[in-house]
Specification:
Elements: E1 2-5, E2 10-13, E3 21-26, H1 37-55, E4 59-66, H2 82-90, H3 94-111, E5 119-122, H4 127-139, E6 143-146, E7 149-152, E8 189-193, E9 213-214, H5 218-228, E10 232-238, H6 242-257, E11 262-268, E12 271-273, E13 276-277, H7 288-293, H8 298-307, E14 314-316, H9 318-340, H10 347-361, H11 367-379, H12 385-399, H13 415-429, H14 433-445, E15 448-452, E16 458-462
Parallel strand pairs: 3-4, 3-10, 4-5, 10-11, 12-14
Antiparallel strand pairs: 1-2, 6-7, 7-8, 8-9, 12-13, 15-16
The chain binds adenosine monophosphate and zinc ion.
Residues 27, 220, 245, 249 line the site of zinc ion.
């Protein structure tokens, strides 16, 4: 399998360090608002990468953090505290706000068939680990105290800037980060805020440096080391994280651990709303709920994301999403038609299609090419319906477009009902019976009856039909 490594800016043969299990860390959401479709593009990309690695025969241990403290409106240490500002706006306490948006995030992920990471870890639940990590950095001479805060001294890490290829020597104070007179170097960053910038910061903890709270970057170094060990195979995030957040994570981790930390850095490009980047802090956000309200299937958005390579920018507009919804509906219609035909599968032919499909994915997760293989196979008049369906089933183990749930009746149902049916199927797969029953009741209230059949299958009827 080949993967593009941002660090080397080249395609590399990928193998997990221990030959078996891929240790994969992904920077998770800052839960001060709804995830927007741009954020979700990042997580769809990571989900398909993970499913591709599984297809390639590797085990994967996937860890993702949830940022519920310490992230300021600038990724460097300036601006307001994102959580605090949102809590004030919504008149909630910070933890209730964080837990609410976290739950919503996983609901959106479920609607997009993104598999929950093996470990999801919250920053606020790892404060003692962060303090220990900072103490170690301090003991090793990489941290200094100034103006009450604890800073990382980037001058002590000669490799600083190597990931983003930033010309550090020519950086002037103030050109990259807002001026902070306490910083020895413009790229230095806060590990621990003690003289809180925010008088009303509610989340504060005792520490050897006084009562305060962690800087944003430290949580990823700490939690990845705790759950994945000192070396990780793949670290993911959006390209916006390369110059500050990931550069800072690298600096802390490599200085604290004393060796290389990440083998392969994987970064997705942005989902772009017209010519702007979509950002939660700009209030310029489109969420999965907005898509549902407008009648789109969340999985049509997943489909849209797969039509572009994860390292290419992807333009977003409702016209573009209409195109993806049409293609997705077309896929559904074809699958429903194929199911009506009683034609056997040819296993050798199925293998051949799936091999071609896998080759695309094993080449830096080439989803656009993989989708072409899928469509070529579905359209091929010389291929039997049975072969097409068997190949599609295997292809969809990685794409996860929910083709196994396509049924004829779906045409007559609205997008919200469709989404509920898909969520219930997923809840049952995850053995979340409570949620599955809740969704069944919600469907019943809409006049939709679900009959469960053996083998995880089910039928859908409109009440009274
Ligand atoms: P945040 O919750 O802001 O920390 O962002 C969560 C993830 O979404 C990070 O990996 C970001 O790099 C990524 N991200 C943010 N905006 C976009 C966008 N417009 N397109 C793609 N990825 C994004
Ligand atoms: Zn991170």
């Amino acid at each position: 399998m080949k993967l593009f490594n941002t660090f080397s800016r080249s395609m590399e043969d990928f193998k997990p360090m221990d030959g078996k299990e891929v240790k994969m860390y992904c920077c998770g959401p800052t839960v001060y608002s709804y995830a927007h479709v741009g954020n979700l593009r990042a997580y769809i990309g990571q989900d398909v990468l993970k499913k591709t690695l599984l297809r390639a025969g590797f085990k994967v241990k996937h860890v993702m953090n949830v940022t519920d403290v310490g992230h300021l409106t600038s990724d460097a240490d300036s601006g307001e505290d994102k959580m605090l500002r949102a809590a004030e706006r919504e008149k909630k306490n910070v933890i209730d706000l964080a837990r609410g948006y976290e739950a919503k995030f996983f609901e959106d992920e479920q609607a997009l068939r993104i598999t929950r990471p093996d470990i999801v870890c919250r920053a606020t639940e790892h404060i003692p680990d962060m303090i220990a990590f900072i103490e170690r950095l301090e003991k090793l001479g990489f941290a200094y105290k100034a103006g009450g805060n604890v800073y990382f001294d980037t001058a002590k890490y000669p490799s600083y800037g190597a990931l983003a290829r930033t010309d550090i020597k020519n950086l002037k104070h103030g050109s990259r980060v807002a001026e902070d007179a306490h910083k020895r170097n413009p790229t230095d960053f806060v590990l621990w805020f003690t003289t809180s910038k925010f008088e009303n910061q509610i989340l504060q903890w005792d520490s050897p440096w006084g009562k305060g709270y962690p800087g944003w970057h430290i949580e990823c170094s700490v939690m990845s080391t705790k759950y994945l060990g000192e070396r990780i195979d793949i670290h993911c995030g959006g390209i916006d994280h390369i110059p500050i957040h990931h550069e800072n994570e690298r600096a802390q981790s490599e200085c604290c651990l004393g060796h290389k930390w990440v083998e392969t850095w994987v970064h997705n490009d942005f989902l772009q709303l017209k010519d702007m980047k979509m950002s939660k802090s700009d209030g310029n956000i489109i969420t999965i709920d907005v898509l549902k309200q407008k009648g789109y299937d969340p999985l049509a958005f997943r489909y849209l994301c797969l039509t572009a390579h994860y390292r290419s920018p992807l333009a977003f507009s409702f016209d573009i999403l209409d195109g993806a919804q049409n293609a997705y509906d077309n896929l559904r219609a074809r699958v429903v038609d194929l199911r009506k035909k009683d034609e056997p599968a040819d296993p050798a032919r199925v293998d051949k299609i799936v091999r071609r499909f896998d080759e695309c994915l094993f080449n830096d997760v080439g989803t656009p090419q993989a989708l072409s293989v899928m469509w070529d196979a579905l359209k091929d008049v010389a291929t039997s319906a049975g072969t097409k369906l068997a190949a599609l089933q295997r292809m969809d183990e990685v794409l996860d477009l929910g083709t196994d749930t396509f049924r004829e009746q779906r045409h007559a149902l609205d997008a919200e009902t469709e989404a509920l049916i898909a969520q219930r199927a997923l809840a049952r797969q995850n053995k979340d019976w409570k949620k599955s029953d809740e969704i069944r009741d919600a469907l019943l209230a809409k006049g939709i009856v679900i009959n469960d059949l053996p083998g995880g299958k089910f039928s859908v009827e409109k009440a009274g039909n």
